[in-house]
């Protein structure tokens, strides 16, 4: 092996950024194809699943649950609202500016199918990686995200 190839191999073998992005590209492609049937991106699909599971969730709570910034939450909710899948409603409470998000009837009709898709994707990952390894990886990713901040 040429010396420069050893350097490159070592660089990529040790590079968290490169390897996590390589995995992300594979997973994004698989999830994007799966959510096409709903005309949703995976991110929008997961947001809708949260709203369906927690009707009336505040945008702030939604951001905390999905680990997304306020501006991203606003943009995603706007997109789901344009598709007729969610509606915003201001509830009386501590912060009168806070809006709560509710699923529409159209979204409620998709609930079971979205949950089934989530289960199918989970089972595909279990089949590929094994339940124990998948659980370990997910836990490591979640913990690493907290620690790296």
- The CATH topology annotation reads as Arc Repressor Mutant, subunit A
- Trace the largest sheet across and list its strands: 1-3-2
- CATH structural class: Mainly Alpha
The number of strands is 3
- Overall, the morphology is elongated
> What's the architecture in CATH terms?
Orthogonal Bundle
CATH homologous superfamily caption = Winged helix-like DNA-binding domain superfamily/Winged helix DNA-binding domain
Distance between the termini: 38 Å
Q: For the residues shown, what is the average pLDDT?
A: 91
**Structural class, from secondary structure content?**
mainly alpha
As residue ranges, the low-confidence spans are none
Roughly how many Å is the radius of gyration? 19 Å
Quick one: biggest sheet? 3 strands, antiparallel
Number of self-contained structural domains: 1
- Helix content estimate: over 70%
Discrete helix count: 7
Strand content: 5-15%
The H/E string reads: HHHEHHEEHH
Task: Write up what this structure looks like.
By secondary structure, the protein is mainly α. The protein has a single domain, classed as Winged helix-like DNA-binding domain superfamily/Winged helix DNA-binding domain (Arc Repressor Mutant, subunit A), CATH 1.10.10. It is built from 7 helices and 3 strands; from the N terminus they run H-H-H-E-H-H-E-E-H-H. Strands 1-3-2 form a 3-stranded antiparallel sheet. Helix 3 packs across helix 6. The relative contact order is 0.10.
């Amino acid at each position: 092996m040429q010396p420069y190839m050893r350097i490159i191999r070592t660089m990529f073998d040790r590079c968290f950024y490169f390897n996590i992005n390589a995995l992300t590209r594979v997973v994004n492609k698989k999830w994007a194809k799966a959510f096409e049937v709903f005309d949703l991106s995976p991110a929008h699909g997961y947001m809708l699943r949260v709203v369906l599971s927690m009707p009336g969730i505040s945008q702030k709570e939604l951001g905390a649950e999905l680990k997304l910034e306020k501006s991203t939450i606003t943009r995603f909710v706007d997109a789901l609202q344009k598709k007729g899948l969610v509606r915003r409603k201001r509830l009386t409470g501590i912060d009168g500016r806070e809006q709560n998000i509710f699923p529409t009837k159209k979204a409620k009709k998709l609930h079971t199918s979205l949950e089934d898709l989530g289960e199918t994707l989970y089972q595909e990952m279990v089949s590929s990686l094994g339940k124990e390894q998948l659980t370990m990886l997910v836990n490591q990713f979640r913990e690493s995200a907290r620690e790296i901040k």
